[in-house]
Specification:
Layout: H1 2-6, E1 11-17, H2 23-32, E2 36-45, E3 51-56, H3 63-89, H4 96-103, H5 109-118, H6 125-133, H7 148-157, E4 161-164, H8 174-186, E5 191-195, H9 201-214, E6 217-220, H10 244-255
Parallel strand pairs: 1-2, 4-5, 5-6
Antiparallel strand pairs: 2-3, 3-4
Amino acid sequence: MERAKSEGFAVVALADHDTTLGLAAAGKRAAELDMACIPCVELSVGRQLEIHLLGYGVDPDAPELAALLDEMRRDRVERVRAMAEGLQRAGYPVDYEQVRARAGGAVGRPHIAQVLVEAGVVSSTAECFAKLIGKDAPFYVPRKKLSTRRGIEAVRSAGGVAVLAHPGQLRLSQQDLFGQIQHMKEEGLQGLECYHNAHAPATQDWLRATCKRLALLVTGGSDFHGAAKPNVKLGSGLERWDDAWACLDRLREAMGQGAKPAGGPRND
């Protein structure tokens, strides 16, 4: 929140993967800085594809969401432990306790990568994913499959707005992507993350047209991950989002929060 404030943001949504544990502290600090922090969560869903689902404005204490997140955290721990143990058996200098300590919270593959970068085994997290723990790499362990419907229902039962994160990264044709979006809308999807650091202008425009066609909300996010993605800055990919405040108003209306908070948008 301090970094966002220093870079000119008035509103930030914090969405961590499969956990809401950072929301209380982030919300408190944002309020102290006269900012607004929208509570959010990012769920890994999908039977065939790995789809990331954002839940804006969720209540972290809602029973269905809390139970689902607990289940997903347990699976995340087992999965990361299995990958760390496989790497260790193959002679790589990593063990699960190192990874857990490096995470300091919800554990994931980027923390394995960070340990191996620090050990000098690979030069970057990207190289680690490509050679060791990415989907087609030798030490990858698949996640537990969670349906898009269950994820959407959990978000909405927690008072949240369900949004498909970075659709352009699904690597589908426009026809197949439109079909996927349409299917998820039938399950209760409410919006698309049109603006993202990996979306080219043509992708952004197509996603916005799809939102208009299917009456979905428009959102955007830089997908900032700190040290895990050093080339991604806060605000990356949002430069063409000229009506961000109007989109925020519609999002907040869907969350039942009313008008936008005090403060102005950043000039760039």
